[in-house]
Amino acid sequence: MLDEQKPCNIAVVGVSALFPGSTDLGGFWKDILAGTDLIQEVPPTHWLVEDYYDPDPSAIDKTYSKRGAFLGNVDFDTLEYALPPLNLPATDPSQLLALIVANQVLHDAAHGQFQQMDRERISVILGTWTASLLSDMASRLQRPIWAKALRESGLPESEIDAICERILANYVPWQESTFPGLLGNVVAGRIANRLNLGGTNCVVDAACASSLSALSMSIMELATGKSDMVITGGVDTMNNIFAYMCFSKTPALSPTGDCRPFSDAADGTILGEGVGMVALKRLADAERDGDKIYAVIKGVGTSSDGNAKSIYAPAAEGQAKALRRAYEEAGYSPQTVELIEAHGTGTKAGDVSEFEGLKLAFMQQEAVSAPWCALGSVKSQIGHTKAAAGAAGLIKAVMALHHKVLPPTIKVERPNPKLEIETSPFYLNTTARPWIRDGLHPRRASVSSFGFGGTNFHVALEEYSGPGQKAEKLRSFSTELFLFSAEHLEELKSECRKAAELSPSGKTWVAAARQSQKNFDPAKQLRLAVISTGGSDLSTKLHKAVTLTDRNSSFSIEGVHFVTGAPSYGRIAFLFPGQGSQYVNMGADLAMGFDQARLVWDRSANISFSGTDTKLHQVVYPNPKFTDEERKAQSNVLLQTEWAQPALGTASLAALGVLQAIGLKADAVGGHSFGELTALCAAGVIDETALIEIARTRGELMAKAATIPGAMSAVFGDKAFVAELIRINHLNVVIANHNSPEQFVVSGRTDEVERLELCLAEKNIQYRRLNVATAFHSSVVESSFAPFLESLRRYPFKKNVTKVYSNMTGEPFSSDSEAIRETIARQIAKPVLFEQQLQSMYEDGVRTFIEVGPGGVLTGLVEQTFKDRQITAVCMDRKSQNGVTMLWNALGKLAAAGLTLDYDALWEEAVPEETELEMKKKPRMAVKINGAGCKKPYPSLGGTTSVTKA
Length: 950
Known about the structure:
Blueprint: E1 10-18, H1 25-34, E2 40-41, H2 49-52, E3 67-68, E4 74-77, H3 93-109, E5 122-128, H4 132-140, H5 143-152, H6 157-168, H7 178-182, H8 186-194, E6 201-204, H9 210-223, E7 229-236, H10 241-248, E8 274-282, H11 283-289, E9 292-293, E10 295-304, H12 316-330, E11 339-341, H13 348-362, E12 373-376, H14 379-382, H15 389-403, E13 405-406, E14 426-428, E15 433-434, E16 444-451, E17 455-463, E18 469-470, E19 480-486, H16 489-502, H17 506-519, E20 526-532, H18 535-549, E21 555-557, E22 560-564, E23 571-576, H19 588-593, H20 595-604, H21 616-620, H22 628-639, H23 641-661, E24 668-671, H24 675-682, H25 688-705, E25 710-716, H26 719-728, E26 733-740, E27 743-749, H27 750-762, E28 766-769, H28 785-792, E29 803-804, H29 817-826, H30 834-843, E30 846-851, H31 857-865, E31 872-875, H32 883-897, H33 913-920, E32 926-929
Parallel strand pairs: 5-6, 5-7, 9-18, 11-12, 11-16, 12-14, 23-24, 23-30, 24-29, 30-31
Antiparallel strand pairs: 1-8, 1-10, 2-3, 4-32, 7-8, 10-17, 13-15, 16-17, 19-20, 20-22, 21-22, 25-27, 25-28, 26-27
Helix pairs in contact: 3-8, 5-6, 12-13, 16-18, 20-23, 23-24, 23-25, 25-28, 28-29
């Protein structure tokens, strides 16, 4: 039946968002990825807590909630939108903010050519709720009631009139523009009017499902050919006391003041406000017109609960009906959907009912072997934005598909046990993770939105993988790399002071980073790199750098690297780490930030291993767990050699992909133990698939060898002295890893290693037992040699394009394919001569050593080996630090050393510079507005501090 359906195939060609915590789409997406909690106490711009708050839910005309999520101030250009400033207080903020967002989404969809666009068949259909201005204006009309109460209290008419006038002064007065300013339909009408759109304009109210209801109508508009583009989404700035009272008396709000969807601590929702819009076109038209495409809507399912138990109580079967209809229209099974952005309000009944509906639609048997679909709700971050809730969820899902990232949902320490989630297809995704996908089908996500009255909507979406133009990705890194260069110190200091004074923020900070990289000249005598977390941090670091340059010709402190003199980086070597450097979620930040890294993992997902259905990325990037025991179990799986080694190889190749993209080439490559297989791949001897399969075989053989009790211990001391200690005590152990002059590893049967450790303790020599399965690089694992060599002969070995150094000899490999196979097979049971390998590289002119892959162990060994010599050693990763920041740190050191790199490759999918500059333009006549509007008489500016009480 699924194959007989026709998907709707609607392209999302523009996106714009205004939600708490940010003023644009980029900020919203960055907040989502960072898991930023944007729920706060009600600000006095909206209503005063002391006026209406009472923790008792039964208190008359009081709300038991004083927290929510609120929009910050934005600039409204009265000249651009032809609205006189005097009319703004009489215009609901939903109309004003919707104008800004609609303008942004149309400019996004028009690729900067909005003025030349044919707007005759562009429609705008939006979901809205009641205008907050409506309740304010209705309140003004209560004067007869006030007068009656005052009269009954015995006040004279003169005082009654005066008191009523004072009360009226706390409301916006009626004027000619008030009537259209409070009408919901004018939200869409004003957009069509000011932006000169000739298609349909209307709004729809389906309560909290309004956004997706508008989306459903918009798709019909496109399907029938009445419109060629539709602007749709949701608008809700109704966070006044009226909204709080409605939700308090239901009651639906959290008494503890937080929104925790699907958590065992969930006890209600929290109100939010916002505006979110997308521009839609028929997919074929978007491809024909060269539009940039974010994602594709494949189906929309709608339903009603029918004769349910209550007009506002959720019904699982009714919701499941909408889900089934969406997938029928989409033409695929829900078993191929890997992300659900749920309605997820955080109410106990609502979450359980929604989860039951999801299971009804997704499960074809009573239990599943393993969950496959991430579940979350953006309401955990921005609260329930009511009429805009579906738009917020839709934009989150579109961005997830577009960036190939599984976004987090926050505030879940333990799932609600009533969900019985462990036997379902779903898991709660509590951290941002790379969305790795094999080639069987595109990434797929879905969004749910349900409203009072039993109205249900579910949207099925798919990543765009067609021949058309894809939209640019959004820059969402927490840090940026700034580069400065000059011939003379005063010139450099002047540039630094100038950048520090600007103290850019937001998009201008990002644009400044890009410009600094474009201006950077590695051939100049003075080179400075700064890794910045924002404008103020940049200023602080630049001022510090200016001071330090007076006293130091070169220095490297946290986030700041400076080198003086002509570039002298010598030859470049890539070093690839071995087993022990792996950890759960290694390389995740690079895979989320750069396609070059993620594509390596995607390709690995097409490789299956015998005896298991588990894919490599599922071990490295496992579903989030909620107990230390569960997380420890995940780490233990990655410790197993059959998983650790292919995972290490893939993570290192992912990092290598980023370096290759910026034009960084090695003159030599090498690795530590397993890492030399990755080095052979980097040198073109074996291909990517061969590396992963060989690594799996090597790991399996070493796992079999681990049945023999063996151990390894790292020793920090004089190698010759310890070797003599081994000899005179007749210990059957070997020095397995000659790592550096200060550190080496001994290996042997467990009882023999324990005897050595006792001897070391007696001599006060430091050692550390390694967490390994057996005594690798010793005779204990000699049995692995023959079968590993035989397995290597199944793969072609090509001539290397880069010099590769061997662990076993410390010298470059032979060019003979069979000799290479035998060397790497024998290496399993032979000592690793890593220090000798480094010395050979140095003798061949290598002065720059770059560790490519997880961890920084090899970088430390390089620094120990050459501590008295002039070299540059950098690593790209540290377990406890952000992966992109570590990349910037590595590139900053290399830039300061004078390497020439193609920094443009780091920006290929970021917002184009001209768009950045356009977005920086200041409005000609700006008025600050927020979700409460502007120039409200009460609460007055300053809130409680400006209200006098007796």
